[in-house]
Amino acid sequence: MYVIGRESQVDQLSALLGAAREGRGSSALVYGEAGIGKSSLVSAAVDAASSSGFQVLSCHGIRGTGAVGYEGLHELLLPLLHRVEALSPRQRTALEVAFGAEGEPADRLVTGLAAFGLLEEAAAHGPLVVLVEDLHWLDVSTADIVTFLAARMSVMPALLLATTRDDRIYPDRSPRFKHHIPLDPLGQDDALRLVALHAPALTVPQRQRLVERAMGNPLALTEWSTSTAHVDGAASAERGRVPMGKRLEDSFLAEVALLPPATRQALLVVAAGQDSSSHEVLTAARGLGLEQSDFAPAETFGLITLGNDSFRFRHPLVGSAVYDNADSHVRSQVHTSLAAVVVDPARAVQHRAAAVTGWDENVAAELERLAVATGRRGARTEAAAAWRRAVALTPAPRERARRTVMAAEAARQAGATADAVALLARAKPSAADEASVVQLARTEWMLASTSTTLPDRGGDELIALSRALSDPDDQVEVLTWAAVRSYTRQDLSTEVKAAVAEELRRPGLAVTGRQRLLRSIALALIGSADRLPSVEEALSVLRPQVRETDATLMNCLAFAFEDAHDLEGAERVWSAEVDLFHRSARTSDETVALAGRGTVRMNAHAIAAGLADCEQGLRLSADLGLSVVGALCAASIALARAWRGEDSLATAALGTSTELSGLAPFARVAAIASWASAELAANEGRHEDAVVHLLRSMEHPPIGLWAGGGLADVAVRAGRPEAVEGWLGMATAALASSGSDRLAMLVERTRALLSPDGGARDHFERAIEHGERSSAVLDLARTRLFFGEWLRRERHIMEARGHLSAALHVFESHHTAPLARRTARELAAAGSVRPTRSPQVFDAGAVLTAQELHVARLAAEGYSNKQIADQLYLSHRTVGAHLYSAYAKLQINRRAQLTSALAATHD
Q1: Cβ(353)–Cβ(361) below 8 Å
Q2: What share of the chain is helix, strand, coil (3-state, %, to 5)?
Q3: How far apart, in whole angstroms, are the C-alpha atoms of residue 566 and residue 870?
Q4: Distance CA 43, CA 819 (A)
Q5: Dihedrals phi, psi of 36, to nearest 5 degrees
Q6: Which residues neighbour 109 within 8 Å (Cβ) at sequence distance 6 or greater?
Q7: Residues 231/300, Cβ–Cβ less than 8 Å
Q8: Which residue from 20, 107, 764, 872 has the least number of CB within 10 angstroms?
Q9: Is the pLDDT score of 428 beyond 50?
């Protein structure tokens, strides 16, 4: 392939194609101003790839389209849809719903995985080039999928190649592309070569004037080389300040002006109906009194071509110039004619909306139906746009307010927080019907729960709102929001909490199952509950219909269990959420639940299970844009890595957590990060630093309570035993209300470490008694280590060896290397020879990554690759790759051997 003046870019694309052919796929974004030669460059690359055996898949953005979402994705994947049965069931369903089938819409992540899976299937039969032209005009849902794919192409023999204008690069999308290829204006020598190629009859002075005027833009050079005005006219400094795109549009308009009036109108039909078939365009033109022959002069001039059942402009700027230069009345007539003939109902509605110049309730109602249908397909950005257009056409203030509220909720679901906040502000003064008032408050509350963009309503405001409502379901829900606010912000006065409790206990209010559940959760969060609702009770109410707000309520229920120091109950709630939201295809909520469960598992020292949850949560949070969730997962990963003595990995995870947290980290994230930092400091013998970090973790009591269990050890070593007093008081008070054996062990162990030598034994022995009644094997092992150290100092050597040996077995089984080394040293000091572990004992947890171990465990339980893919949000081929790697590391060669190979794995 060869393009004048683009030799280095051609070489770069050739290298990327060569790497893709060898299985090292990639992605590249080619960008530059209009007419700079993006299409020429990628077309040359694609032609070269196609001639050397690559399969080519392509789609292109069209200005003014993208009404219902995923149109571009359908165009891209259409040649592969016969392979859809190869996808896992959830991914297949997600893609089918995105393309219009009935069903629950999936999060965009699942749709992206489905697209990725189809590309993998195709790439298994030969290398691929995936071409996406004019990314800036692609429907937003497809553009999101394209950038999702761009970050994942390295695992297959494929190159994803996209073009966009440099002034339209999305800052959150372009970083996903591995390579960025900017196209600058051509230098003078290359520009002269291009002019000589296209207009050899021009004299040297004419070529030089043209090159000066075109400013290195290849399209301008080729378009203007046949124009006397541009060849012979003098370049103007004032003219040079006009953007090249506008100058090119003006030159195209000059060409259009030479055409007959009927042909100019025919070109406008093509410009307004660029997403329409040639049959629809010609039929609409006849409705305006035009004939097919009226298109001929434009084809003769080369402004349009007819091929593949559609009209295409010579360059997109031609269509822009024609459409933008037409007056609104003529455009309205054209859109009206197109609306009458286009087959697709969604596109017809868009044309009717474009034809309206004032209010029109009939079209607004059609747009509302379009918004609902689009949302059901998972194209939430396009749904929000349809709602906003419906608002603009709605004449009745009450109905306009209702649609504005719905537009705000659609924008929230699409992640457009700023748009949602602005729409709520518009709707709030005029929202009148009760349903709109409640929906507005619900959207407002959910935005305030997940961002700092919108201040949420105070507890007294929510109480007043509840009293103004007539529906008991809505009353209880609003009061529950007040309780959640009290829990998360910790800023409600005792009087407001009492008022919330009084409202919730009003006779006759909480009579249905859902109302009773919400009341129980709310009362628990404000400290007024007689008991916490059970997981079974909660699920029996929530399973029939999972509402948008239920995730936050379930999260708060899990937190309430954690506040009651019941980690087992908290884990059961989080696990129920993971299952519930996975089955209802709510991946974002599932990711939050994975992070919550991973944190609780870490607190309970179930390290391998917690690490698997948090690594999956971190991966999903990056795909879903959930930075706070990612920060929480990264902090928990750092804690696990520090326990295992993987200090460099722990430090890297802490860096990720800090980066994702921003300037104001959530208290829970900061507490876990401080705990991880304390463990790192202890590993390095920096006991004073460890004390400082653990004291910081106590600023979030649910985390600090468990983190502080290790405070006495480092505080005594740092010569600061007084630093333990605050934690000991907090833990003693918590123990009085919970009766937790694990907490009792930590309290007794702390007292032992702080006791004079003669009084420590009783505390240690009571600590071990409590520990043996709990499931906290690592904390029990630590207690045995500390007791063994004390016993050795007191010359009770044989007794010390027993406790130290038991502790060492646990630490080695759980791969907590720093504690294992410390225990081994203590055993050696006690005169014991450390037993050598048999080389035949093979611990899978020591050799597999967390994701490989997760995949292997599911495979051992009998799940197929496709079922595992659905469970872990991977493609089934990625699952196969993980299993292949696991087999090699475990020294096995078939699935049936996994159960025995994993038998020695410890959590």
Answers
A1: no
A2: 70, 5, 25
A3: 31
A4: 60
A5: -80, -10
A6: 148, 587, 620, 623, 624, 873
A7: no
A8: 872
A9: yes
